[in-house]
Amino acid sequence: MSRAVVIRSGGLGDFLLTLPLLARLQADGRAVHLVTRHAWHQLIALDGLADGFTDIDSARFASLWSNAMPDLAAVFADAEVFCLLPDPDGTLQRAVCRLGATAFRRIDARPAAPPHAALRILLDSGLSAEPDVLTTSHLRRPVPPDETTTGRPAVLWIHPGSGAAAKNADPEWFAESAKQFLAQGGTSVTISFGAADEAVAPLLTRCFAAAGVPFEVVQPPTVTALRTALASRATAFLGNDTGVTHLAAALAIPTEAVFLATNPDIWGPVGETVTITDLRTDGIWKEQ
After folding, report:
1. Do the beta carbons of residue 85 and residue 18 sit within 8 Å?
2. What is the pLDDT of residue 5?
3. With contact defined as beta carbons under 8 Å apart, do 138 and 227 qualify?
4. What three-state secondary structure class fits 229?
5. Contact assessment for residue 80 and residue 101, using Cβ atoms and an 8 Å cutoff
6. pTM of the predicted protein model
7. 3-135: which CATH number, 3.30.1830.10, 3.40.50.920, 3.20.20.10, 3.40.50.2000?
């Protein structure tokens, strides 16, 4: 069996856009070793998308930049390397090639123009893209696919923040969307906040109170716990362009992703049931 090593850091959404590459490599019969953050590996540990793991933040990986590389030869020997890290002077490429890598592919992790980032990753990897690459959810969700017909409560999960204020829809818009969900027969609304959402939480609370919309706040302590909570509770998801929105889509939860600054043609969530809502007021994507 041929071997592949995928090196990927970045945020949760960036990592999840790499799942089509992992799935494709395995479908092609390769053993995949994943070099990434420990939390991201834990997130997909039960999905069979990687056969081995190295923590990208570990001293072990950092040893690539030293003269002593004690045990990484077992990772890179006879492997094709797919690198989504910046390597402007080729230091990383030279290091892994000294350890026996057969090829080193540089992949543009932050494309500034279409096609979609997941497609760009595959193309830069020298791989073709299947027609359903952007509509396939890669994470397992141990619940029936049609929850409403099994008597499961209809729960809308909202994540109203993101890593940048320019990406965030108005809290009043989220409150109105939640009100419509409940008016149409929804059972309840769950809200989660991220570490960067301190300014969003009080304003959103006031807007929901003014709209008469009850909600429950859930704050899972880890991304793996977040995945479990989403998979077990949410029958629908609404959020900005952020990692939690990408996670919901990857779990095949019907997802409405709100875009104000980033271009969904590049950064839209990958999943089976994704709706893009464009809330720009000037028709310009301000960020890539």
Report:
1. no
2. 98
3. no
4. helix
5. yes
6. 0.95
7. 3.40.50.2000
